[in-house]
Write a structure and sequence with these properties.
Blueprint (H helix, E strand, L loop, with lengths): L1 E4 L3 E4 L5 H69 L17 H28 L11 H23 L1 H6 L7 H23 L1
Antiparallel strand pairs: 1-2
Helix pairs in contact: 1-2, 1-5, 2-3, 3-5
Length: 203
């Protein structure tokens, strides 16, 4: 095939035909196929890596943060229910301890529960909230978590004041109660994380 460009300038272009054209086409197809295969392989590897990383993070959230928190809260709840069985409660309903009705023996029992069980449990919970905050579900710490930190700090401070100044101080000064929403937030997040983890496993 011959082309003429301008005046008296001749250029020649070649058209591939026959076996040569077939070989070239095969080489191009092989190159494109190889590139596409490499891309798809890398894409699958990236997706697998991302999936494994997400599962590992969910596993850490469950095993290192929400699982232990839930266990500590349940233990504290059981101990409070036990204390309600042997100490005076509001209106005798057995669900809220009434320190205003305490007698000498009750004070000793109350201090035993506080110092032996609740202080250590509260400290473990606060430690988790301080050191494992990066395992929170979501970007911000729930209000109930902050409320628990305030509860734990006030509870210990007022107890020490009560222990040093006497029973009357405890009756006059009211601290920050245990936030009921704290328990619910932990259980809801734990359930949500388990559902997400199971969904990844089924993919």
């Amino acid at each position: 095939m011959v082309h003429y460009i301008g005046q008296g300038v001749e250029t020649q272009a070649f058209t591939l035909t026959g076996p040569v054209a077939t070989v070239v086409a095969a080489l191009i197809a092989a190159f494109v196929g190889s590139s596409m295969g490499h891309y798809l392989t890398k894409r699958r590897e990236w997706r697998k890596s991302a999936r494994e990383a997400a599962m590992q993070h969910l596993q850490r959230q469950i095993q290192e943060f929400y699982g232990p928190l839930a266990g500590l809260v349940r233990e504290a709840t059981i101990l409070y229910e036990t204390a309600c069985e042997i100490l005076p409660t509001v209106d005798g309903r057995g669900t809220q301890i009434d320190t205003n009705q305490f007698k000498d023996g009750d004070v000793v029992r109350w201090r035993f529960f506080i110092e032996t069980y609740w202080f250590p449990l509260n400290q473990q919970i606060v430690q988790l909230l301080r050191t494992k905050v990066y395992l929170l579900e979501g970007d911000t710490m729930p209000a109930s978590f902050l409320a628990f930190i305030r509860h734990a700090a006030a509870f210990e401070a007022l107890h020490r004041l009560w222990k040093e100044k006497g029973e009357e101080t405890n009756k006059q000064v009211k601290g920050v109660g245990w936030p009921a929403q704290f328990d619910r937030d932990i259980e809801q997040s734990l359930l949500s994380l388990k559902i997400k983890y199971d969904a990844y496993r089924e993919r």
